[in-house]
Design goal:
four-stranded antiparallel sheet; ABC_transporter-like_ATP-bd; AAA+_ATPase; binds adenosine-5'-triphosphate; ATP binding; ABC-2 type transport system ATP-binding protein; alpha/beta; ATP hydrolysis activity; Rossmann fold
């Protein structure tokens, strides 16, 4: 399961939404795309899913050009793009049945619907008209539609948007499970969500990929600022540290709390100014997008 993006460019009239982006991804795993409003995330996911055509460049799914051979390429892919809207007079079951037929499923459609309904936990309202669904219910139904036929690549545009905290946690767990066997590409505005569910993060800004990195070990870090200079840092509570001008970025040992570390720093003669939890992805994001 793989996706290759080559020199992908999209213009909407005078707006350059994506500018010659390149990326290769192979699964299983989860890639999170972060970026501010208007950065080009949805445009990229729409191009991968062949909802829109590129101005230039190409997307290959398992080496098949999605624009030239959409039917062959898209059988490997399921997608949830933008806020889902359904025929309001159909119920969830009818929508799933309709979508399964469009996807080309012929046999055991009811078994597949049951699998998806259990997976997305929407048994309680499956037979209600979708016109009465809340945003979160629609989101779960759209996720079920994206997973019809068990595709090996799943594209999700802000999959937890509009869900309550319990619903978000449920969908994140589902994504983590899916990405053990599949390639999942999702967009999000939430840095902590990207860190939690993905093993690789891209940051897009002004239509360009500005950051592409395998997620680090996700260990907790502390940022300490200090006055003067430092001669020595010794503490049983510190795993490792980096000194950068008047800041120290510390990775604590598992059993250490911030108090233990600050106490040891002061004992070492460090004139501590402030200490706070540090998020390197957040700092990178802010410096790229501001
Ligand atoms: N159909 C369209 N017609 C004209 N411009 C468009 C269209 N769709 C998107 N754009 C523009 O393309 C750029 C990228 O939009 P896109 O929706 O891909 O951003 P995004 O990163 O998904 O943003 P958000 O986080 O707000 O959803 C924006 O400048 C947007 O205004």
């Amino acid at each position: 399961m793989e996706i290759s993006i080559r020199n992908l460019t999209k213009r909407y009239g005078r707006i350059l939404a994506l500018n010659k982006i390149n990326m290769h991804a192979s699964g299983p795993g989860c890639i999170a795309i972060l970026g501010p409003n208007g950065a080009g995330k949805t445009t990229m996911l729409k191009l991968i899913s062949n909802i829109i055509k590129p101005t230039d460049g190409s997307v290959l799914i398992n080496n098949i050009n999605v624009s030239d051979y959409p039917e062959r390429a898209l059988k490997y892919l399921g997608a949830l793009i933008e806020q889902p809207e359904f025929y309001y007079y159909l119920n969830g079951y009818e929508i799933l049945k309709f979508a399964a037929k469009v996807k080309g499923l012929k046999n055991n459609i009811d078994d597949e619907i049951k699998r998806l309904v259990d997976l997305t936990d929407m048994n309680d309202y499956l037979y209600r008209k979708t016109g009465t669904y809340s945003r979160g219910m629609k989101q779960r139904l759209a996720l079920a539609v994206a997973m019809i036929g068990d595709p090996e690549i799943i594209i999700l545009d802000e999959p937890t948007f509009g869900l309550d905290p319990k619903g978000m946690a449920y969908i994140r767990d589902l994504i983590k499970n899916l990405s053990r066997e599949k390639l999942v590409i999702l967009s999000t505005h939430l840095i902590y969500e990207a860190k939690e569910v993905s093993n690789r993060t891209l940051i897009i800004d002004h239509g360009e990929i500005k950051y592409d990195s395998i997620n680090s070990d996700n260990k907790r870090k502390i940022l300490v600022t200090f006055d003067g200079s430092i001669s020595n840092i010794k503490s049983d509570f510190i795993r490792d540290f980096v000194i950068d001008k008047n800041r120290i970025i510390i990775t604590p040992r598992e059993d250490a709390d911030n108090y233990n570390i600050i106490y040891d720093l002061i004992k070492n003669g460090v004139k501590v100014n402030s200490a706070q939890d540090y998020d390197d992805l957040e700092e990178t994001y802010i410096s790229i997008t501001s």
